[in-house]
Design a protein that fits this description.
flat; alpha+beta; 120 residues; 46% helix
Amino acid sequence: MLATDEYSIDAQEVATYNEALDSVEGYAQQAGAFMAAANTESLTESIDSYASQNNIVIGNYSALTYTQSVDEFVITWDNYGNATGWNGYLTNEMKDADDIYGAATYIIQHGSLANSDPQP
């Protein structure tokens, strides 16, 4: 015979869980954006050029953020809030749920996206 323990979830646990999901979503967006930015040569060149022209050491920043809704990276260069923004670099790379589900469906049916290139 199988015994079960009763368990209940209170409103605070639900709220904490939901807040954690929101945090994970935000961190995942930031991580994805930063990885995409690092692989976008035109963006890294622009940031490097700006830093060079303004005598800024690129590693000396106090904050780095990305806002997906406006496709903007903002680098805060010091503790006084002096910041510079770059936007529009990832717009053409944006994916929505349909793109992701479509890729997943293709992978399930065909094994991988690598197989999607027509073979001569």
